[in-house]
Amino acid sequence: MSTLTPRAKILVVDDELGPRESLKLILQDRHEVSTANNGDQALACLDQAEYDLVILDIRMPGINGIDLLAEVKKRAPDTEVVMITAYASVETATNALRHGALDYLIKPFDRQSVLDVVEKGLSRRAHSRNMKNKLHQLQLVNRALVEEIERATRNIQRHFLETVSSLVAAVDAKDSYTKSHQRRVVTFALLLGTELGLSIREMGLLRQAAILHDIGKIGVPEQILRKRASLTPEEFGIIKQHPVVGAQILSPVQFLQDVVPLVLHHHERYDGTGYPDGLKGLAIPLGARIITIADAVDAMLSDRPYAAAKTVAQVREQLRLFAGTQFDPQLVELALRIDLPSRRITQSVPGSEGM
Ligand SMILES: [Fe+2]
């Protein structure tokens, strides 16, 4: 006999003393054998300890062997069960196999058959425990891999955003009034988002979109961005392309899919006269409506080629004036609750915008 499970715990359940003691005698040298003389006693034993193998008489007063088999399998599916029967009821024993018993022993017992059946049961239990352990190990390895992949994905996304953010900073540098414009738009958009009670996910999207909203200006020549005189219709046409160009740049990036509409529509107007699609009212994505206000507030507070910076009071007045035409009126109400930073100097200290 192998020693796969040395001194396994075995429970013998039989209402007759003879078979019960005979099984105990055969097995007790090698295993720890407990006995029970009815179903209730057996269940009490099962409540107290975990058994590797249970040997059950099919015919017992009270709870019969088949019902007890079902109960053992319900409590401890890995515990192997061997049924005991007389010649007369081999059919019942076969039925027990269908209910999950490992095998059956026929009275009177043949010592070697008992040892063989018990050995088979213990091997099977050891094997299934082994498989369970392996499965558990695999699940742990799998979980660690998933976490590793998620971490790597987050890193790639962060690096991508940092790279693109530097790119946008380069666009800012081309544009004479937009020194750190991007960062200030992010800060104000997030303040508005907080007033609105946006979720963490929505705030994340808003932040990314606010960073990236003007990335399409990469495609606008510097002389147009910096032009002090009024723009020709053709030049204005080129400027108006920047949300579309921005959306085209970001569209292939899988994790920025939800950011694309916000970038595409950040120059729509609430009354439908904006660009590129002339979307109106609530048809404009909420994040885009927020960025429109944040973008305009920062532009008004900054010196631009064609206009000096406005005071905070003037900006608030403009927001009120254009509520319902350029801006979402409900968002304007929220924006007016926020303390605007006074900034009549064009060049703010980099990194001082709280981003
Ligand atoms: Fe823009």
Which key phrases capture this entry?
355 residues; alpha/beta; Rossmann fold; Hypothetical protein af1432; 5-stranded parallel beta sheet; 14 helices; disordered N terminus; disordered C terminus; binds fe (ii) ion
List the ions, cofactors and other small molecules found in this model.
fe (ii) ion
CATH topology of the largest domain: Hypothetical protein af1432
Order of helices and strands: EHEHEHEHEHHHHHHHHHH
Domain module tally = 2
Q: In the CATH hierarchy, what is the architecture of the largest domain at level 2?
A: Orthogonal Bundle
Count every beta strand, where a strand is a DSSP E run of 2 or more residues. Answer: 5
Estimate the strand proportion.
5-15%
Could you tell me the mean pLDDT?
87
Largest sheet entry: 5 strands, parallel
Indicate the structural class: alpha/beta
Describe the 3D structure.
The protein is of the alpha/beta class. It has two domains: 9-128, Rossmann fold (3-Layer(aba) Sandwich), CATH 3.40.50; 175-337, Hypothetical protein af1432. Helices cover 55% and strands 7% of the residues. It has 14 helices and five strands. Strands 2-1-3-4-5 form a five-stranded parallel sheet, with helices on both faces. Strand 4 (80-85), helix 4 and strand 5 (103-106) form a beta-alpha-beta unit. Helix 6 packs across helix 12 and helix 7 crosses helix 12. It starts with 8 loop residues before the first strand and ends in an 18-residue tail after the last helix. Residues 1-5 and 344-355 have low confidence and may be disordered. Bound molecules: fe (ii) ion.
